[in-house]
User: Fold this.
Amino acid sequence: MNNNCALCTTELTSMDTLLGANKLSDGNVLCNKCLNKISDINDELLYNLNAFSIDDINNMLNTEDTEATQTVMTVGKTLPAAIDSGSHQISKEVYKRRHQKIKNELERLHANLSVFTKGEIKELPYLISEEEQIIAITDAQFVNTLDAGVLVATPNRMISVSKGMFGAAKINIYPNETIKLLSFVTHPRSPIIKLHLEERTVEFECYMDKEDAEKFYDTIKNIYNNPQEQSSKQIGSAKRSVSVSSEEIFNQLEKLGKLRENGILTDAEFTEQKKKLLEQLK
Assistant:
């Protein structure tokens, strides 16, 4: 077997050749960095790499370069095409802008995500706007499932995105107001992060990187696990809301309605948030 990556020619490491995971149909092998690069163009490479040869991959790269050049030449002449992910629909221009912003945030956080979460990361631009910041992210899947997944924390909510080898992504949104407590169950191989909601507890298994899961928990635990401070913040927020205009409340209600229409909030979550906003008008 060749000891160099068939694409970039750098020397392969033990992680690149682990279990022959990066082996192509013609016997060539890709390093993990090149696999990440090419899987951005074609997700199928993550799950069915041995069906492709190095010639197939070079053709993909050449096609991608040609399309990119054509896109630059036609900017301003046509409207951006729409990207549809389930009930989410944004323009390609907005998607690229959000994707770059998310990429920069993950680099800043030194996110240590596995190659299997590529599909989940591609869903995030549909869910997280330019105004919403990612404060923590880790590999995490629902317990007793085979889906890969990520758990994302922002200042106002937690987002779970999970995806099997085939099929659409499964997205679950947990606004901060619905999370009563956050807990962490240590384990030598796969610790568990628990979101204690009002009516149930949601459990995520972190089997890829135990230390990264602990880092994620340590980063956000104080947001949820200091009841007195949280209560004080809620009281302070309630007092400030007295001076909030009714127009602003109605704007917030309109935003909630759009989140429900897009499937980001369930009917129950929408009703709860709507009730809290209407109470501020009293």
Remarks:
- The first helix runs from residue 32 to 39.
- The two ends are 73 Å apart (CA to CA).
